[in-house]
UniProtKB/TrEMBL annotation:
The lineage of its organism: Eukaryota, Viridiplantae, Streptophyta, Embryophyta, Tracheophyta. Forms homodimer and may homooligomerize and heterooligomerize to form the phragmoplastin complex. Binds to PHIP1. Its main location: cytoplasm. Residues 523-614 form the GED domain. Belongs to the TRAFAC class dynamin-like GTPase superfamily. Dynamin/Fzo/YdjA family. The keyword Cell cycle applies. This is Dynamin-related protein 1C. The keyword DNA-binding does not apply. GO terms for cellular component: membrane; microtubule; phragmoplast. SMART domains: DYNc, GED.
Amino acid sequence: MATMESLIGLVNRIQRACTVLGDHGGEGMSLWEALPSVAVVGGQSSGKSSVLESVVGRDFLPRGSGIVTRRPLVLQLHKTEGQSEYAEFLHAPKKRFADFAAVRQEIADETDRITGKSKQISNVPIHLSIYSPNVVNLTLIDLPGLTKVAVEGQPESIVEDIEMMVRSYVEKPNCIILAISPANQDIATSDAIKLAREVDPSGERTFGVLTKLDLMDKGTNALDVLEGRAYRLLHPWVGIVNRSQADINKNVNMMYARQKEKEYFESSPEYGHLAHKMGAEFLAKLLSQHLEKVIRQRIPSIIALINKTIDELNAELDRIGRPIGVDGGAQLYTILEMCRAFDRVFKEHLDGGRPGGDRIYGVFDHQLPAALKKLPFDRHLSQNNVRKVISEADGYQPHLIAPEQGYRRLIDGSLGYFKGPAEASVDAVHFILKELVRKSIAATEELKRFPTLQSDIAAAANEALERFRDESRKTVLRLVEMESSYLTVEFFRKINAESEKNQNAAGTNASTPNADRYTDNHLRRIGMNVSAYINLVCDTMRITIPKAVVHCQVREAKRSLLNHFYAQIGRREKEQLGKMLDEDPSLMAKRETLAKRLELYKSARDEIDSVAWK
């Protein structure tokens, strides 16, 4: 079996490491909270400070009237070999205090640093570790003394504020309560006992300490309390005789004070039979033994919490990314992996696994048809404009049979209007693809740790999209130009054949001279013929423009969005690759903290296993 000191000492070290890393919980219970500790609770002037100093065997706490303890003091005692004694503060980790008067002053100064030189309190703890051969391994938390009235310079809420602070510690199921009560007051009015009864009604976590036994009125004693008749606890009451004010003023050595306390109980007619269970030394051993017992009982739940936290830390490290190698090959591999991760997300947006790609279909199904419908063909093919165009096309020599040049000019002018919707479709899809690039970069978890690489990928992707847009614009304009360069002759032959058939059916002569070439009916017929042809081309454009846009922009974005980027990074030097993997400093700090916490929890698990069960 492991010794009591080794197990509790290990817990002390783990708690201190948790404190250094700021591992005090958050959601759920932290490892620090899962490890048992002792909270010292009592009213003002109940003798809390003297009890702590007796347990430590050193005079190191600030003294005075009113509220002296204005911040929680987390005091970790570490039993050492040899004769040297020293103290360390968490806020000054590289400084050792061998002079305990300096420790007292540092506590006062650190308290004032947060609360100011006022009588305000703060729930920000001071962490102090004392290393000495004269202590037992123990974690004690000295809390502000409970009070009933606010004094001058204190807010009216001070009474409630102190109680809430004390409750925040003693309500925790792993907290052992050291309830300090002065013997020269009625135990029924003890603030510490009252609070302990509320948060620990079964009394399993409460130890009662009776101070100032030597200050009781003559002819009275505290046997009813110490023997459990006045107020019974599951654990035995412990009596303490503090140093007198005269001893404090004379700086009487704590070891000498311990000896005087021992002599007091042994020579006392009232308490002599209890002497072996009284005094600060017995209290320290009693608490240490109980703490060891509680730790052993809680080991399974502590290990379960550690394992759960290790899994959570590993998952979080996987989410934000593990550290990368420093050689060029590892860096290039990491960059390519990040690019592939982005490319997967981008394709999911396009293919429907994520939202966004459907907006491209919206361009073809709504925006393009609406734009085509709004083209000003009615104005271009109005009777007046048809007359004007045909007359200009005929020049000085009017057309003989049909105004072919006029037809061609009217058709060319109409086809030119298709360029606007075609280019607008290209630009709309380009905008959507750029937005999907932005969303894909934001949604790629692996990339979040590399802001520089994010910018580089975004720039490369947008540059590629610009190339795709240029090619797409050329293609859709070429489609329009193709319609202009070769008209569908069969369409007009069919119209002419139908016209002759209608004339024959009506008994008119199809070869009548062209005297009516500028009549309203003739011009209206020309406009209708051109309009019918444009409608045919419009139906074709509605089909072919989306095909061209998808082929030149969407397909290429899926196939080769980062191809140029891959070629570029393959030629870059290690230093340039390293700059691309320049992480967000806050993320680097987070990973470092997570890694340290993970190492702490793994080490704690291994050490608790080895120390507790060997």
